[in-house]
Amino acid sequence: MAFDTAPPPPTADDFAERIRALPDVAVVVADEASGAPEVAWGWRFFYVGPDRRLPFATLGESDMTGYDEESRLHRPGVFRLNLDLGRREFERVVGYPPARFADHRASIDFAVLDELLPNPLYGSAGWASVLNPGPRSLAEVERLIAYAHRRARHRRGSARDRSAP
Prior knowledge:
globular, disordered C terminus, six-stranded antiparallel beta sheet
């Protein structure tokens, strides 16, 4: 008798912990107290620094009815990790620049699991997403989490430098 010894794929909570453990990361869970619209409650937003400007990653386990439903996150156990990659890395990952996202949008199945794709709402801004990262995408997703985090830290440092007297 053979046993499958492959570890189970990471969960949304596993990814949240990995991202939260990175240096200078602040996380906001959208809820009534945060002022987020009800359709976003439960989504997690990851920022560099306490000022919570421009998240570098978000993690959602539910559709935002009437706003963001193309990933079909209502399916049991399905979650989406979104990463702000910027223009160059986005193009390297998906094969075309964010400015060309609209040209490709109709051919993308945003509900496919374990595949890096443009984010259905923010692809034109350089955001990528993946549903339930697993064997096909996990190594690249781990690299891109680190990349998005470094990029956000650099951006935050540059903003602080500009505001210094």
